[in-house]
Amino acid sequence: MNHLDPQRHVRGESQYLDDVPVQQGTLYAAVFESPLAHGKLLSIDFSAARAAPGVVRILTAEDIPGENQIGGIVPDEPLLAQGHVHFRGQPVALVLARHEHQAHAALKLIKAHIEPLSIITDPRVAAAQGELIVPPRTFKLGDSEAAWATCAHVFEGVAESGGQEHLYIETQGAYAFPTEMGGVRIISSTQGPTAVQRHTAHVLGLGMHQVEVDVTRLGGGFGGKEDQATPWGALAALGAFCTKKPVKLVLDRMADMRMTGKRHPYSSDFKIGFDENLKIVAYEVVFYQNAGAAADLSPAVMERTLFHATNSYFVPNVTATAYSCRTNLPPNTAFRGFGGPQGMFVIESAIAKTAEELGMPACEIQRRNLLREGDVFSYRQPAEMCHAEQAWDTAAQHYDLAGLRAEVEQFNRQHKLLKKGFAVMPICFGISFTKTPMNQARALVHIYSDGSVGVSTGAVEMGQGVNTKIAHVAARTLGISVNRVKVESTNTTRVANTSPSAASATADLNGKATEMACAALRERLLRHAEVEYTLNYEGIEIKNEEVLAAGIPTETTWEKLVSSAFWKRVCLTENAHYATPDLHFDATTNQGHPFAYHVYGTALTTVTVDCLRGTYTVDALRIAHDFGQSFNEVIDRGQIEGGAVQGIGWMTMEEVAYNDEGRLLSNSLNSYKIPDIYAAPKVLDVHFLDTPGHPKAILRSKAVGEPPLMYGIGTYFALRDAVRAFRPHSPLPFSAPMTPEKVLVSLYPEFSAASASFNLSKVLLS
Asked: The pTM is what?
């Protein structure tokens, strides 16, 4: 089955938020943001702005009828700043004008008097000063402290991973309309319609039933619209509620980059110990998460970092501690992988350091320590249906791992200024929301009297193909053509209390609910056919839109059966609820069974570094991935390829930079680089691992949204391998992203901007 959307996309027929026809009387909103990262908000002068052409109203925290609070996990984030500002770009006021350019022109006339306060941008500084979002968390297995004495090798180090801009094509935005009875309807570019609904109702002092949120599709999300779509939806709704007019608020690209949070940067300390056979005995790690100025989803992201601190390896003695540190930057938020990649990067750094110190390939250490069936994670869940070794061995055999390493070594012997690097990246990623109550979904299915079908779920389509998968599930379960199925927009009135489309769980949760609803409808129709056509129920089925009895076609088609059921007053609507079974986790002991299943895979990465310029190419990324029983290989392959390249971007070129005053320096696509076709691997091959899938995955087709991003981590270590082939003892820190500038400095550590004695010719000849 093909992806349903691409043809509409390339024809420009797909509708996004900004394509919604503008209603007469619509006001345009622009946000006045804090010009300082931290300070006391003493006063604001709106007089000139209020008198500006087209300005209808300016709203501040004093105009909020409910509570000025949109914090989810921790109530620490006002919708509009009040009393203090905590990061550059924090919303302070909302200007409403008749035209968009008038609203933005008025922003320049607003004068804010802010008394500066001290600014923190470093998470370690925040931790030292006790500036924590929540208390620290520790996952513990065995006794790492006692285990050090039994280790033959112990290594310590520091690993730093940077932020990452989501850079979805469609920026943040919302379009809000006043409704009867004092409510609002919001068209929102959000992954979490219920979050927008809940917080908007809270801000406006309304019941959730008076706030409707509708989402047709997003132009990308990657986690950046899971929680951070909320303020823009709530602000647009506040404007509509106060003026009784439609209000549209869409951020431009630079405002979006400036005002929204990113992937969390981490600074981490690690200590790892091995026995004489290089089996990991103990691992201790401390994560310092840069949360930004408010909690947002940082505590949950931090928790998932702890869940994935040991990646694909069994470690009998683990102590992993994480601090969520409050800084004066925009609140950082969900990003594909949700903290897991940051944790994986640290243990891969620890293994790489070990390999470098012992003078051996890291892959030999990696392979010896892979998870096996029944091994226990640090949170006490056993590895069940574990395919870590299978993924590694399949990749090694299918792509000839030994041969690739030999080719790299031979190339490096033959070239002085070009060096190749090689790395293996195994992954293990847990699938489920780690907050157990979020693992539930509903589906509402209508069969219309002409045989067409409408499906509503809580899933949000953002380019990942979830609507195609849900349509496939409905068609397959009912035994009809997918052309009869329409997946409706995601709407909080049709399907309430939804979890966000996140955690790689969207297709599983909403697909299972759809399957349940359609199965109930199919049974109802077959029971009707049994009576109406005097058939034996045990032998009736619907296949290819025909009603079969004992495998033999009857004279009844799908359309006839549905029409007959309608005229006999059989209910053709079903609502189903699915909650992932057997999940539990005790956050007080940090133990339990938080994941429905795990996804495994292994990637082999080859790179070439130009050792004169510091530039590089990713030659090949070869992946053996555990898809389970994929029912749409085209979509799944696309997710693997896109996710892996996004991970490569995070590890190589996407450098988020703030100065000490909290000003974003990488504030445009001139200064912030993302992978293009030239940065993508020259060879990107994906091998579908032969595994049975998992019964808790929809149709045994495993989740595929987040796991592939982690394959990109291998690119960092391949580049490191190439650098050390040129300069074996380069003092190269574990600091991602590995930009060309960092590569160049690591190739020539002798170089210093203050050193007049640096001679490139001498270095190259030495």
From this structure: 0.96
